[in-house]
Amino acid sequence: MILPIIMAGGSGTRLWPLSRGNYPKQFLKLHGEYTMLQETILRLNGLEHAPAMLICNEEHRFIAAEQVRQIGVAHSGIFLEPVGRNTAPAIALAAFKAVENNQEALLLVLAADHVIENQAAFQESVNKATLLAEQGKLVTFGIVGNTPETGYGYIKRGAEVENGFVVDSFVEKPNLETAQEYIASGYYYWNSGMFLFKASRYLEELKAFRPDIYEACEKAVQIQNNDMDFVRVDKEAFEACPDESVDYAVMEHTQDAVVVPMNAGWSDVGGFSALWEVSTQDENGNAFIGDVKSVDTKNTLVFGEDKLVTTVGVEDLVIVNTKDVVLVAHKDESQKVKQIVSQLKADARSEVKFHREVYRPWGKYDSVDNGERFQVKRITVKPGAKLSVQMHHHRAEHWIVVSGTAKVQIDDTEQFVTENESVYIPITAVHALENPGKVDLELIEVQSGSYLGEDDIVRFEDRYGRVDKIIHKEV
After folding, report:
1. Which residues, at least 6 apart from 408, have a Cβ–Cβ distance to it below 8 Å?
2. How far apart are CA 31 and CA 39, in angstroms?
3. Which strands form 301-304's sheet, in the order they lie side by side?
4. Rounded to an integer, what distance in angstroms lies between the CA atom of residue 74 and that of residue 54?
5. Mean pLDDT, consecutive 10-residue segments, the chain of 475 residues?
6. What is the 3-state secondary structure (H, E, C) of 7-40?
């Protein structure tokens, strides 16, 4: 039985400011009506498989769980990496977990942030690879490329085997001339970073070639803590694990690596040029997402989040407007957005990691305005959700309900607050906010005080396991 392992870590900085540390590209709707993570899961419909297992970090755990819930699909758990250690250790965690229940489980390792246009072709390649994986082969999927891409690694195929080819070698990202030779030869595929192999075989090869990674991960999974949807492993043991990709750790060394070609309209959406390529374009080559009006505009990508964006007489541009950032770049230079991110990191700018709109397990908030001694947020609480029971040492809060009904606790008093009503929470008052209704609760929060930092939170009770933690940028 195939057990899909969906790798949902990473920050996607090449798509900043759409993708940021607290809400990276795998959780965004960049191609179609679903997020990239949701598309990855739904792409499995039609394959015989067990519910997918997700791997992500602590910070994104509630986003991942909520997005799976939204599409009504069961999962086999969400593994939480204490720290990022690349793909070889992450897959090892999943493999150790899989063999606990089924020594012969086939792991289908997928990235959560890829676009695949042709679902049928994707599944056909997976089915072909299944026969090889059941024989103990470690299968990687090679993308049949039609252009000489310099941003991808390549796989050179060797002798033909049933449904695929022996891997001759893995090749680093080439220059343009070399990439042209690769594509013309027909012997090279783009390296997709997708795999299929038995969990037990992967662990055997990992133990043979990287016993240090094997031992660290084996030790880490010996201590597991199950919390709602989430599975945590021993942090100290995993932190001691080397940082290594599955290609370097295993695939380049094993004698059982095979490549199965895949021609399914694949893209890793590694930058804005790639996003433009996979987006629907008009007769002038423009890809417009959001409220956009244009005159004499060609081959341009525009992403408008919350306001009208207009263009006149421009060509080959990338224009991204979010609630707090505007990016304008030439399409051919858009990879250099990473340099902007580096500058912002050096300046300790919050825009690197945080959007103005921040998602939380209970809903979300949008920081509408702020100034000296005040801050205004628009808060959305999902039906049945509750913020932590908490208090603040330095700020008071005023809540005005816009829609829905709020159940409010202030010290020993509990009350219901409905539309066009408000309530005041003094400094140091122990308080909580809950949505007892069936629709979203919308309210405006006005904070006032000498210090408005998000670390001024003391939690007493919390449904989401955040008691006694000071968490920055969180309500």
Report:
1. 399, 414, 415, 416, 417, 423, 431, 432, 433, 434
2. 9
3. 287-289, 301-304, 317-321, 326-330
4. 11
5. 93 90 93 94 96 93 93 94 93 94 88 96 97 96 92 94 95 94 94 96 97 96 88 93 95 97 94 94 96 97 95 98 96 94 95 90 92 95 96 97 97 96 97 96 97 90 71 41
6. ECCCCCHHHCCCCECCECHHHCCCCCCCCHHHHH
